[in-house]
Specification:
Number of domains of chain A: 2
Number of helices of chain A: 9
Largest sheet of chain A: 7 strands, mixed
Number of strands of chain A: 9
CATH architecture of the largest domain in chain A: 3-Layer(aba) Sandwich
Strand content of chain A: 15-25%
CATH superfamily of the largest domain in chain A: NAD(P)-binding Rossmann-like Domain
Oligomer: homodimer
Amino acid sequence: MPKLKRISESTISRLSRYYRALVQLDKDNYETVSSKDLANLEHLTPAQVRKDLSFFGSFGTRGLGYPVRELKDKIARILGVDQEWNVALVGIGNIGSALVSYKEFARQGFKIKLLFDNDQRKIGSNHKGIVIRDVANLTRELKDNHIEIVVIAVPPQQAQAVCDDIVKADVKAILNFAPINLKVPKGVSLRNENMAMELEHLSFCLVNDHYCEQG
Amino acid sequence: MPKLKRISESTISRLSRYYRALVQLDKDNYETVSSKDLANLEHLTPAQVRKDLSFFGSFGTRGLGYPVRELKDKIARILGVDQEWNVALVGIGNIGSALVSYKEFARQGFKIKLLFDNDQRKIGSNHKGIVIRDVANLTRELKDNHIEIVVIAVPPQQAQAVCDDIVKADVKAILNFAPINLKVPKGVSLRNENMAMELEHLSFCLVNDHYCEQG
């Protein structure tokens, strides 16, 4: 498969949505799906769906549509969810603790292998089957355990220091829940999850009588 | 202010990010900011920043930039975060419970007023100062308490029924954490928070040697 260097953030998000829709269609025993039906499911236009999928070398057959399972498997490969990823989570507070129980992660192949905290009362204890480690050893433990993705769920004041330790371990993918802009060197992918921003999106819609599509 | 009907999802997200950057700049006592500095902070191009802000009637002064506080207040009005919103949360499991403690919500004016669950052991109990109500009375209680935004944090199998009850209460804004596509009538704004999708974004980047900017 050619490496896809130039692809927009929103295209990647749409691929995730197609993937979810296709998993469901496959479960429901659909063999094919038209661009129109896939567009309806995801509140997009059929033209957008066709454009996205042709970009990835998938072409529907006129009158038949796309083969569900084949397209699902192809997008899984593109998204990297046809394999398992070693994930570590730093900060076992309210959010962190909820994430450990979040079944969608494991279902998509994201296996939380290591947990870290700086609270001496938590370190060494067992949290849903995983021992909480001391964040002081973060860099070394991430390296030793071949962690590929790290989730940051610490308070904002501690997030940059934690992020720096993760970068030192040569981890190339970070998901940040702390409400702060982190600095990472080029080559490290950083995504921010800010749940307040989603609410702002909704208040924007309320204030402006603007109808927000699913996103 | 003119009503903004035609504005893309990604523009609204960028406004949220400008707003965050401006709040921080104001706290740090900056009086002005250039489009270049604002772009750097948010990993965007200066042209994008100027385009977005001119769309909202804000023009920087050449050599001086944008007035920080004025621009911050203006974007707060556009996003609707200069006012308080009455929020209800349905589903006090792991995620729901973490959201009640999520300080960013209250900080942006999103006040969680009501909590709902269907677990008889939880109903009537006090959760961080708020009594958990019976989801069986959802529609009536949302109406009686003038709730404007509802957050769904129930298991996927229950999410559509809960969503239907919310819509019946004439609530126009829903934030959904259940990993399922909900159906809402036109005029109801729905946003989905799917944390696994953010991880998929990162695995995409790892698989394709693609460097993901902050987003």
